[in-house]
Amino acid sequence: MPDAGPSDTAAADEQAGAPPPRPYALVLFGASGFVGRQAAQYLAQHADMAGRPWAIAGRNQGRLEAVQARCSGQVPDIVLANARDTASLDTLASCTDVLISTTGPFAVLGNELVAACVRQHTHYVDITGETPWVRDLIARHHAHAADDGIRIVPMCGFDSVPSDLAAFLAHTTLMQRYGEPAYRVKAAYQVRGGFNGGTLASMFQLFESGEARMLTDPFLLNPPGMRPFNGPQHADPSSPRWDEDLGHWLAPFYMAPINSRVVRRSAALQGFSPDFAYREYLQTGAGLGGALAAGSLSFAEMVTQAALHWAPLRHLIRSYAPAPGTGPSEEAMNSGGFDCEWFARSASGKKVRGHISDRGDPGNRGTTKMVCESALALVLDVDELPGGRAAGGVLTPASAFGDVLVRRLRTAGMQIRVNPT
Ligand SMILES: NC(=O)c1ccc[n+]([C@@H]2O[C@H](COP(=O)([O-])OP(=O)(O)OC[C@H]3O[C@@H](n4cnc5c(N)ncnc54)[C@H](OP(=O)(O)O)[C@@H]3O)[C@@H](O)[C@H]2O)c1
Fold first, then answer.
1. Which atom of ligand 1 approaches the CA of 366 most closely?
2. Whose CB has fewer CB within 10 Å in the chain, the N or C terminal residue?
3. In this structure, are residues 175 and 346 in contact, taking their beta carbons and an 8 Å threshold?
4. Is residue 367 within 6 Å of ligand 1 at its C-beta?
5. Is residue 58 lining ligand 1, measured as CB closer than 6 Å?
6. Centre of ligand 1 from the C-alpha of residue 32, in Å
7. What pLDDT does 420 receive?
8. What atom in ligand 1 is closest to the CA of residue 201?
9. Is the CB of residue 82 below 6 angstroms from any atom belonging to ligand 1?
C-alpha cells in the first residue's frame, strides 16, 4: 500500500478532527475473475480517481500480478485478501473509500466482505444477481448502514441497472412533464450475449441451497412493512402475449424475477406511488414470426425452470457448463448487445417511453461498465448523489445513484433515451 503521505489538505482535515485519507480511492476485489479482469482494464483505461491511487485485490498474488501487467493506463497496486478470512477483509475494507466486488457466488463469498465494509465505513458495490442473498444483507445491514451513511449497493451489473434506471426515468419523466407518478411501467428486452462459468456457478448454488424458492416472492427485497397488495399486476409473466403499447410480441424473460424485485425495492425507497407496478419481458418482434418466437421462448423458459429445480437434471447440465473463470470469447463479447425498450403511464393515462441500449455482451462488457461507473460515482460524485454524502443503507442502483449514474453511463457510451413525447 502507498504511504498516505500527509498533504496540506490531509493535515488540515486531521486538525479539524476528520480521519486521515485512506490509501486508496477504490479497490476491485475479484480482479482475477472473468468479469474482474475486464473491470480492472476498464478502470485502468477510463478512471481518473481524482489523482488518487487504486488497487486490485484477491487471494492469489500471481494471478493478480498477471492482471496488473495487462492494465494499460493507471496501473493499480495489489492487495491480498481472502473472502474466507475476516481479518484480511477488515484490512482490505479499511484501506479504501469504495470497494467493488466481483467475487461470487456472493451467498458463499460475500457475507464477511459486506460486514467488513459496514464495520469499516466503506462504500460497496457489486454485480450479484442473487436476490435471496441481498434480502439477507438488507435484514442484517440496512439500518446500521443507513445510520452511518454507508452505501451498500448490490446488483450494479446487467442485473439490475437497466431495469432499475428504466423505471427511475419513467417515474421522474412523468413527474417532470405532468406532475403525475408512474402507475404502470413495462420493459421489453432484446439480448445478445453468453454466460460466464462464474454466473452459472452462482445460479446452480442458488438452486442447490434451496434459496431459489424465494424467487417467487414479488416483494422479496421490499422494506419491511412496504409490501403492496400482491395482485396480478405484480405476477411474473409466464406466457406469450401481444403488447399494444410496445407493438411487439412478448415472452417471459429469465431475468425478470431478479430485476423486478430490485425495481420494486427502488420504488419503495424512492417513494413512488403505492399503486406502482413493474413487469418485464423478452421482446420477439411483430407478426407471425414474433408470435411463434414468443411461444417457443415461453415453452423453453418453462422447461429450463423445471430442469433447474430437478436435481438429477441440474447435475447433468452442470457437468457440461463452462467452469468458473471462463466465459464467452472476445469476439462473442464484442458482437453482443442489449436493448431495453420501456413504456410507462400514469394513473390518468399520461404516457412516456424510451430505450436503454449498448453494444457488447451485457453480462460482461455491459456489467463491467455499469459496476465501474457506479463505483466511480461514489469516488467522484458523492455529493451529487440522491440524499447527498450522508445517505446510506442497502440500496438499489437507482436509489443510490439516480441521475448521476444515468449521466455517467451516457458519457461512457450507453444509449439512454427518453422519447420527447
Ligand atoms: N450482474 C451481472 O450481470 C453479472 C454478470 C457476470 C457475472 N456476475 C456474477 O459475478 C460473479 C463473478 O463472475 P465471474 O464470471 O467473474 O466469475 P469467476 O471468473 O469465477 O471469478 C470469481 C472470482 O472470485 C474469486 N474468489 C473465489 N474464491 C475466493 C476467495 N475465497 N477469496 C477471494 N477471492 C475469491 C476468484 O479468485 P481466483 O482467481 O483466485 O480463483 C475470482 O477472482 C458471479 O457471482 C456471477 O454470477 C454477474
1. 3
2. C
3. no
4. yes
5. yes
6. 8
7. 82
8. 47
9. yes
Establish whether residue 113 lines the binding site of ligand 1, counting it when its CB lies within 6 angstroms of any ligand atom.
no
Chain centroid to Cα 225, Å, comes to 24
Distance between CA atoms of residues 127 and 363, nearest Å: 10
Residue 56 to residue 39: CA distance in whole angstroms: 10
Tell me which residues of the chain have a pLDDT lower than 50: 3-10
Topology classification of domain 8-16+24-157+365-399: Rossmann fold (3.40.50)
How is residue 3 written as a grid cell? 504511504
In the prediction, which pLDDT does 130 show? 97
Q: Taking the alpha carbons of 186, 393, 269, 219 in that order, is the dihedral positive or negative? A: positive
Verify whether ligand 1 is closer than 6 Å to residue 164 (CB atom): no
C-alpha cell at 229: 397488495
- Rounded CA separation 52/187 (Å): 39
Rounded (10°) angle between helices 34-46 and 61-70: 40
Q: What local confidence, expressed as pLDDT, does residue 360 receive?
A: 98
Label each residue of 236-294 as H, E or C.
CCCCCEEECCCCEEEEECCCHHHHHHHHHHHHHHHCCCCCCEEEEEEEEECHHHHHHHH
Choose which residue among 27, 29, 35 to substitute to test ligand 1 binding: the one with the highest number of ligand atoms within 8 A of its C-beta. 35
- Cβ of 202 less than 6 Å from ligand 1: yes
Q: What residue segments make up the domains of the chain, in order of their start?
A: 8-16+24-157+365-399, 161-362
Per-residue pLDDT of 245-298, as tens digits, reads 999 999 999 999 999 999 999 999 999 999 999 999 999 999 999 999 999 999
The C-alpha atoms of residue 53 and residue 74 are separated, in whole angstroms, by 8
Please report the pLDDT score of residue 5 as a whole number: 41
Bond from prior residue into 105 cis (ω within 30 degrees of 0): yes
pLDDT at 1: 55
Please report the sign of the dihedral spanned by the C-alpha atoms of residue 288, residue 291, residue 294, residue 300. Answer: negative
